[in-house]
Design a protein that fits this description.
There is one protein chain. The chain is an alpha+beta fold. Helices cover about 35% and strands about 15% of the residues. It contains eight helices and nine strands. The strands form three sheets. The chain has a five-stranded mixed beta sheet with strand order 2-1-3-4-5. A two-stranded antiparallel ribbon has the order 6-7. A two-stranded antiparallel ribbon has the order 8-9. Strand 1, helix 3 and strand 2 form a beta-alpha-beta unit. Helix 4 packs across helix 5. It is globular, with a radius of gyration of 21 Å. The structure holds zinc ion (2 copies). The site of one zinc ion has 6 residues, from helix 2.
């Protein structure tokens, strides 16, 4: 498929460096991974004419993730970026227009390949930064066509009703509630809490105007 992405690797690397704070091997890998995803899907201008076409799943929260956000324009705050905390250097790009999806994963062998390509460099980061620009896509990445089930509430533009948790009273958007024994609960109250309260939360009327802390 002929696909002319609006920016070059060098231009995206400039953007990625500005957004991320530094240029590193992870940025280069992330930019190339995302560009390959766009290319496979035939998405040329993800910030312009194609800006509503793409949803991206990322599987790691490292440098490359910032670069993937820069290239795709998919952001958490736009509901176009989905995070699966799997610790894997991989991302899946979903074209909402065609329904096609492609998962791109960095090959485990790419690190050793980077090292062998530039033995003259002592620094591993420098070896990688150079090699990740030079290596071919299929040397760096594994590409797999996949099917992603994206229910309506996962779409960027989804507007759902807001309901409240029967236990804590907090509002829940986008059908993230859990229904259990006829009760509507938020995920925290349903047992998925990632935090433990240090004190019992107080009824605002009881605690009055006291400022704590
Ligand atoms: Zn970095
Ligand atoms: Zn709750």
């Amino acid at each position: 498929m002929h696909c002319e992405i609006v920016k070059t690797l060098t231009e995206y690397l400039k953007d990625a460096e500005a957004a991320h704070g530094h240029l590193c091997a992870g940025q280069i890998l992330g930019v190339r991974l995302a560009m390959l995803g766009l290319q496979e899907l035939g998405i040329e201008d993800p910030h312009g004419k194609d800006r509503k076409r793409l949803v991206t799943f990322v599987e790691i929260d490292r440098c490359a993730t910032d670069a993937i956000m820069v290239v795709t324009g998919c952001r958490l705050g736009k509901r176009a970026l989905k995070f699966r905390d799997w610790g894997k250097m991989a991302a899946t790009f979903v074209d909402l227009e065609s329904g096609k999806a492609v998962r791109i994963a960095a090959r485990e062998s790419s690190k050793a390949l980077a090292k062998s390509l530039h033995p003259e460099l002592e620094n591993k980061n420098q070896q990688q930064m150079l090699a990740y620009r030079e290596l071919q896509n299929d040397q760096l990445f594994e590409t797999q066509w996949v099917k992603v089930n994206l229910p309506p509430e996962e779409f960027p533009g989804f507007k759902g009703e807001r309901i409240t948790c029967a236990q804590c009273g907090e509002g829940i958007n986008f059908r993230r509630e859990v229904r259990r024994n006829g009760k509507i609960l938020c995920r925290a109250c349903a047992g998925e809490r990632y935090y433990e309260p240090l004190e019992e939360s107080r009824d605002p009327e009881e605690s009055g105007d006291r400022v704590i802390g």
